[in-house]
Design goal:
The protein is an alpha/beta fold and 323 residues long. The chain is built from seven helices and five strands. It starts with 6 loop residues before the first helix and ends in a 13-residue tail after the last helix. Helix 1 (7-16) runs antiparallel to helix 4. It has helices at 7-16, 21-34, 43-53, 55-74, 104-118, 229-238, 302-310; strands at 85-95, 141-152, 181-186, 194-196, 208-211.
Length: 323
């Protein structure tokens, strides 16, 4: 079980750990360059940078966490459409090369993967070890492709400062971001596969960014990140999930039923992989919120499910998506 925490303390701890955006990006890039097969997600770094520049956001994140914990304690019931929350998806494709202008088939493959992963119909869901079979979860969220917007650009890479989300900077501004999940597909650079905006951020930049080389399961999708799990991981962040190691050594991911992890795992770890954190628990390396290869991640936990669904409840930061 994860230790008890106070919401303002979490915000203060996150801010205390902030570093300059350039330094964080360089750390991520160096990590990737040292082993090209390593996953790179910039969601936590982007959140820290946003909060460092906007102290009010740190308070808002703390309030969202307090709301989430309250909802979890209330054993809430989700508003469902035919059994699931249904989210329309806008895919914004920014391309300089023909390869970056990914096909409709590649886009649809990613939508299909999100639907499988969030509804426990992915074939590798059955590979969850018996040790975690009692907490593996069907989240029950459906994604529907609403539209695809394409734009030719002269940029070779976009970085992690949200330029791809702003028409004034050559990108594409989000469409109906309070009711539709916007995905941007482009070359990010710096070894980053993708990043998401956590609940609470500005609607003008809300959504998920995925590099075109790691989007879907066909076309330009590149091994070992060729099964669409980068988007699954990033949409998990968009729904308020943290990395499973809590972005600190033996950190807190704010989820009760995930074991403590030393740090991120890479590749395809053999089971069981033991943590050296207190109690030496077996790590849930196959969780979507770790850093393992696409082929090695295939489950959310029950408490991760509850945490995600909480943001769609009345008063929650993504309630408008559940109407």
């Amino acid at each position: 079980m994860k230790k008890t925490f106070f919401m303002l303390g979490i915000a203060a701890a996150i801010l205390a750990g902030c570093e300059s955006d350039d330094k964080l990006e360089n750390q991520s890039e160096n990590k990737i360059e040292s082993a090209n097969s390593h996953r790179g997600c910039a969601s936590d770094e982007v959140l820290k940078d946003q909060m460092a520049n906007d102290p009010a956001l740190a308070m808002k994140i703390a309030q969202i966490e307090a709301f989430t914990q309250t909802k979890l304690s209330e054993n809430f019931q989700s508003r469902l459409v035919n059994g699931v929350i249904e989210i329309p998806v806008v895919v914004n494709v920014l391309y300089k090369t023909a390869a970056e202008n990914i096909s409709q088939a590649q886009i649809q493959s990613q939508i299909d993967i999100l639907n499988k992963d969030f509804n426990a119909t992915n074939t590798d869901y059955n590979d969850v070890p018996a040790a975690f079979s009692n907490v593996k979860a069907n989240v029950g969220i459906r994604f529907v492709l609403d539209q695809v917007v394409r734009k030719s650009t002269k940029k070779t890479s976009w970085g992690t400062r949200d330029a791809m989300k702003k028409s004034a900077q050559g990108g594409l501004s989000p469409l109906s971001p309070t009711t539709k999940l916007n995905l941007w597909v482009c070359t990010i650079g710096g070894g980053i596969l993708g990043y998401a905006q956590f609940p609470g951020g500005a609607s003008a930049t809300d959504g998920v960014v995925v590099d075109s080389k790691y989007f879907g399961s066909t076309g330009t999708a590149t091994y070992p990140f060729n099964l669409g799990r980068t988007a699954t991981h990033e949409v998990g962040h968009w729904m308020n999930l943290r990395h499973i190691w809590g972005d600190a050594t033996c950190g807190n991911d704010l989820v009760a039923d995930t074991p403590s992890h030393n740090t991120a795992n890479y590749g395809a770890p053999a089971f069981p992989h033991y943590s050296t954190c207190a109690g030496n628990p077996v790590e849930m390396t196959m969780n979507y919120m770790d850093y393992v290869d696409d082929r090695a991640m295939y489950m959310f936990s029950s408490d991760q499910k509850s945490r995600m669904l909480a943001v769609f409840q009345s008063g929650g930061p993504r309630y408008s998506f559940a109407q």
